[in-house]
Amino acid sequence: MMQVFDERPGGIQRAPHEPRILAAGHQVSLREISFSEVDDKDGLMLAMLRGLALTDSFGRNWDALYDVLTDPEGRPPRLALLLCDYLHFCKRHPRLSADLERVLLDAQKTLDTQDRQLWLLTEEPDSDTRHW
What we know:
Barstar-like_sf, Nuclease inhibitor, Barstar
């Protein structure tokens, strides 16, 4: 069976079972970002800061987030972002999530042209049975 890390990243995908173990086996660095307590742009930027282990000098705006994700010095060439509780966040904040998706997908496309990979994986609580 084909695994998500065997293919080039494409958009926001559902996380496979045991994503942390799979990422390690495929030499993909994995960072977890929790959206369960994000209620506004400041909270979202704080979640990204924590999840990506950024310093307080992170600009906390869309351009700064794009720059951080596409920085060849600051990011590994194979990176996966595990977006935890993301679908609920999207339902609660459709405009904010649309802005975030634009930045994430732009970064993913840019990295692809540099032969680097950025997987965007959603992981929902076990009770969530919806599919993309």
